[in-house]
Specification:
The protein is of the alpha+beta class and 162 residues long. The protein is built from four helices and nine strands. The chain has one domain: Electron Transport, Fmn-binding Protein, Chain A (Pnp Oxidase, Chain A, Roll). β6 and β7 form a beta hairpin.
């Protein structure tokens, strides 16, 4: 079966850090598959790898927080994409606070929102979480000069490869 190859590469999508908390556990991972999926009502979908540690926590969570990284935040991308929560407490290495529903909000990220998990969708080796926004950054101030894109982290080795 063919893959998306050059089509997917040409998109060079924005990269996000998605965080979750449930049952006293916190998790977060770097996500490249995400998009607005409805205007009215506003909805956003994030796709989490089913082998990822964050997926297990997100399945039990009622809220997820989606953070837009700026290009200057590659170190956060390396932490949340290059390490696995199975072995590392990523939140011990960054400033954060509990947001709506306890979902972790990364203090150094100015553009974020927390969404209530309205639905889950099967998607091959990923599961989609449809989010209804319930909280967002009060003021983003100056937005990142440019969002971190897939091309900026293409060389990053996944912390929890499939």
């Amino acid at each position: 079966m063919p893959d998306l190859g050059d089509f997917a590469t040409a998109l060079d999508d924005t990269m996000y850090v998605v965080t979750a908390a449930s049952g006293g556990r916190r998790a977060g991972c770097l996500v490249g598959f995400a998009s607005p999926c409805s205007i009215r009502p506003p909805r956003f979908v994030v796709w989490l790898s089913t082998v990822n540690h964050t997926h297990g926590v997100a399945r039990e969570a009622h809220h997820l927080t989606v953070h837009v990284l700026g290009r200057e935040q590659r170190a956060l991308a390396e932490l949340f994409g290059g390490e696995t929560g199975d072995r590392v407490d990523k939140f011990a290495r960054v400033a954060w606070r509990p947001g709506h529903g306890g979902s972790p909000v990364l203090s150094d990220v100015r553009v974020w929102f927390t969404g209530w998990v309205e639905a889950r969708l099967p998607g091959g080796d990923h599961e989609g979480f449809v989010l209804a926004p319930v909280e967002q950054a009060e003021s983003v101030g100056e937005p990142p000069t440019a969002p971190l894109r897939y091309g900026d982290v293409r060389d990053l080795a996944a912390g929890h490869p499939a």
